[in-house]
Every structure is written in structure tokens, then in C-alpha cells.
Prior knowledge:
Layout: H1 10-32, H2 39-45, H3 56-60, H4 79-92, H5 96-122, H6 125-137, H7 142-146, H8 151-173, H9 176-190, H10 199-210, H11 218-242, H12 254-259, H13 261-273, H14 292-310, H15 315-328, H16 352-369, H17 371-395, H18 400-410, H19 417-426, H20 430-442, H21 448-460, H22 464-476, H23 481-497, H24 501-514, H25 519-531, H26 535-547, H27 553-565, H28 569-579, H29 586-609
Amino acid sequence: MSLFNTKFDDRNRFLSYLLICLFAIIIYLPSVNGEFILDDISLVEKNSYLKEWHSVGSYLSQEDGYSKDTGWHTGYYRPLINLSYTLDYKIWGMSAPGFRITNLILHILTCFILFAFFNLIIQKKNIALMLALIFLLHPVNTETVSWITSRNNILVTLFGILSLFNYIKAYKNGKYYSYILSIIFFTLSIFSKEFGLMLLPLFFLYQRVFNNGRKITFIELREYAPFIIVAFIYFFFRQNVIGSLITPAGFSDVFMRIYNTPYVLFYNLKLIFFPFNLHSFILKYPESFLNSGSLLSLFCFLMVAILMWVYRKNRVFIFSIIAFIIIIFPVLNVIQTSAPSLIAMRWLYFPLPFILLLLSLPLKKLYWFNARLTVCLFTGIILYLGFNTYMLNRFLWHSPEDFFKQEVLQFNNTFYYDGMAFIYGKEKKTELAMKLYEKSIEERIRLDINYIEYSKLLMDKGNLKKALEYLDKAWNICYSRDQMGFIFHSKGVINLKLNNLEESEKYIRNAINLSPNEPLYWENLGVVQGMMEKHEDALYSFKKAIRLGINSTSLFKNMANAYILNNECQKAIKLIKRINREEKDDILNGMLRKAEECVKKEKSNDSLMR
Length: 610
């Protein structure tokens, strides 16, 4: 740790960057070989849009994560994200580890910039490096770095800090190119995530705090003009793409949300300063206004206000607290959002650097008092943070199975009951899966996929009428063509089992209209048509299924039977002999005998005709 006890030169700066890289690789190593999880599957893995380059206009007119393949609208406008995914796909292919590596690289670059930014504010490189390493290793950032679709938080932070850094340098040094860079990075930040708009009040705050309460002048307002113009351009595109200037929000219970703002704020601070038992939180408001958590938060908020008055001349202290509140304001739920939780670890990625500036104050004093003690204390902090981050990357953010098992079995997170039910279904633990789906539906986690998966289990258990009931519920909230096709097909299979052949054929044909390249749909259509004695139609459907990739014995059996019933026995014999080489399948042997008898009768009839 001698690096923290020496004056910085170019060699020490290089060692600082090297240290950041090494720590990042070590603690995020378990995440790098992870899988697509949660929204990664629909917004990345199944999103065909990101597989090809598109024009600038196409990216600017694209809703974040929207894919015609899934039909899922996110309601967000972040065009740079889709561009970054396309770049990833061209480099890595559809590889989750590749996309995760990109997130990690962006996280490292963000820490490099924060190192420079912290030093610009506090003018102490050793302390700036400590703060950058705390940000790098903090476990609250694992959700952002290890979850691919949380990349928007990394990009808005990277570009946002670069914009603020260059804005400050432009003001301090009078460098015009720094001012231009600030505008460029501001543009990139807001087109990565709407959080970037909070840079505008942050610029204003910097002028008020670090320039002795500088009065607002025409020159300052003129300096803001390019940023405001960029913001208007952003809103123009946003309005045209998603039809809303802001994320759709509700305005009910305004007093309750304002009253509980300190509660949400200090819950976020608790995650930062006491980072244990971190996971994917689903936090709701306290049930009453006199809840101990709400009252304690109000008291703490009052204490902070008093401290800000007492230390109002400490610029770093004032800037740190107000900047943190400004950046985190969009997710304090003062204006109601559509998110299922009041907090999320990923929302702290951008605000975190500003609250970390507070730590520079005690660290600088302790370092001046005893440098060796400071280094020892700091070592203990990063070991604790690094260990927790490593464990989260290994056991929570690695794969869907790991994630759902941790959330449900360890934290009893009811929001993810459906995910754990899906895992149980894959593991053939049907009873456990059904219980969790039922609990999930009781908790109002009513997604089309939940109803669909639950209906599958009901079908397996023979409860066909109830399965139809839940397929109808899924249909009412379903927007994906693939899911609609699956619902139609499932209804067709159920009606087939109920011997409602005409209904079955109708539903399966509807499924094929939505998903014409799904071979299983064609195979089952052939089965229904065979039972309806439409043998020529059945043969066409079976051949279509084979062309689309099905090569199963059951399909060939059905096809051979259709040939026999359609009096094409020679074709049936060729097909059966081709797939029944070892002659161990009794059903096929019986069909073969039947076909051979059919051929003999045909020959006998021919001879009689002569």
C-alpha cells in the first residue's frame, strides 16, 4: 500500500490504473462467465434488432429494448443502449459472457474517470484513488455491472461524470475545447438514460457552491444554452418515439410519497454505508405514517439539514449532499414511477460518486493525523467490500437458477416466486412449481408467462379445463406474437385431448398463422387432421414439420400411419424400414405388417382386374 503514501507521478498514476483493473477482474471474475438473466433474455438475447447495424435515424427512432419478436414495450427512450448492444453482438456474437465483459470494461473506465474527477474536487490524489477503489468494489454496484440490461446506468454515469469534469475544467481553465467536450458528453449521457438531464441542476449547483455564491449572470445563462438546446432535441425525439416527455407516472397519494421521501432516501443511504444482505429489493412504503422507519428517517433528515447549516462553508460537504439528492431525485418516487420497488441497487450507480465525496473529509483528516492507520483502515474496508461483491457475483448475478434460488429461498422475495417456479418446473418438481405459481398469482404477479407456464403444469396433471382458464387469462394480457401462438397451440392440444377436433384444428391453424416456422405446431396439426381422416392434409403437415427440423420417431410413426390410411402403402413401408432398422419397435413392426398386407391386397386386386 506504499502507493497511498507517496506523491503521485506518471508511474504512480499508471500503477493506480493497473490496481483498478486488477481489483475489477478479480472480484467480477465469477460474473464474466455468467448467463443472460431476467430482462437480458427479452431485451438482448431474443432481440433481433440488435443483430444488424442500422441508420442513425433508426436508432434515434427506436424504443429502448423494444423488439417485434417479443412485442414488449419498455416505455423508455435510450437509443445509445441498442447501439451498444449491436456493437457487442458484432464482437462477441450472442454470448452473455461477452456482453458482461463489455459492462465490466465500462465499469473500469468509469472508475478511471472518477479517479480524475475526485482529484479535481478534493485536490488529493491518494484520497481520490481510495474513493475510486471504494466505488469500484462496492457491492451495491454489482446489479449494474453484472446485469447486462442495467448498462444504461453505467453509460449515463460514465458520460455524465465526463461532462461534469469537462464543465468544471472549462470554467477553471477557460479552455473552450473542454466546454465543447462537456456538451458532447452531456448529449451522450441523456441519450443513454434520462438521468443525464440532472446534470443541468448539477452545473448550477457547482457554480453556487464553489464560486462563493456567484450571482446568476447573462454570461452563465448563455453557457447553459447549448445544454438546454440538446435537452429540447432529446425531448423532441422522445415524444415522437414513445409519446411521452417523461416516464408515465401516477399522481395518487402525493402527500404519502412526499412524506416518505426521507424514508426512501435514507434506505438508499443504508445500502451504501451498511452494505450487507444485498439483493434485488422489492421495497414498499410503510403501512402507517407513524411507522418507526418513517419517523427515524424524518429525524435523520432534520439532523442532516442542521449539519448542512453548521458546515455550510464546507464546499465539498454541501456539494456532496445536494448533488446526491439531485441525481437520485428521479427515483425517490416523489413523482410516482411504474417500478415495482421503491429502491434498486442499480439506481445508486450514478448518485454513489457524489455521496462518496463525503468520505474524503474524514479520510483527509485521518490521513493527515496518521497515514499508516488510514491505509490499514482503508485496506479493511476494501477487503470487506470486495469479498461481498465477489460473493454476489458468484451466487446471485451468475445465472437465472442462482438468482431465483437466492431471492426466493434465502430472502423470501415473493416478487420472484414465478421465476423459482419455472426453475422447479425444469427440474420436474411439479408440485413445488405449482404452489409457487399459485402464490405468485395471489401476490398479483400476473404476467402472461406465469399463466402460460402454470397452464403447462395443469395440462401435465390432466386438469385441462383449468388449464384453458389460465390460457384465457394469459391471452388477455399477452402482446408477443410468439406467446400468442403458443397459447393458440396449447388450446389446440387441450381440445385434441378433449376430442374436440374441429376446435383443435382451428386453434392450431391460428398458432401457425402467428408462428409459421414452429415445427411442433405443424406436427400436431397433422395429428389432428389424421384423426379427422384428412390424410392428404395430414401428410402435407408432417412433411412441413420435417422440413422445419423435426426428426422424431413419433412424427414418422404418425406419417407412416397417414400413408397407410391414404392407401400409399409402398411409401409407408419405405419410411418404416428407414426408421426401424433394428426392428425393436413393436408398434412400427405392426404398422409394417399392416402396410405389407395392404400392398399384397393391392397386388391381388390388380391380378383379379386383369
